[in-house]
Amino acid sequence: MSVQVLVPAAMEPVNLAEAKVFLQLDSSHDDALVTDLIRAATEAVEQTTGRALIARTLRQFLKVWPDKGIIALETRPLISITQVQHVDAAGVSALVDTGDYYVDVNRARVIALPAFPRPALVHPAEEFQIDFVAGYGIDTSFVPASFRMSILLIVRDLYEHRGETGGALPLRAQALLAPFTDVRL
Q: What is the CATH number of domain 10-51+139-180?
């Protein structure tokens, strides 16, 4: 499965002014750098946790039919499903009726009901596309403090150690993110 961003987040979960206060920067000389560090830190947090912090619209592609017809979405928290469509081998898409599936918002998954179309998905061009909105909300006020502080800690670490290669997320950021990170075997 892969995920594509259809409509990006309207803002970052931490803004430049907050990061500058955290870094104790008074001048605007490094504003572009700090802005890039905020983006990089946000991406790191979202990749580590599998969560979208600010709401955005995504499309997940399904090339193999899952066991039991349960489609787990790769990005959480789920706000809503916009549409589910089947694209056949000729590239023709057909919407799946909303009555043919159940949306489990709490577990970020779509559950196929008996009427859900179940094509073999054998041709490389054939797939299901699930469009959905994921994130904590439309602005920074909805983002949990643990995520925001993790971003600031990562920004500080990247700022202080710029030019150095390698390294993991700062330990304090890892500790804040640990409750939100799925253990993968």
A: 1.10.3230.30
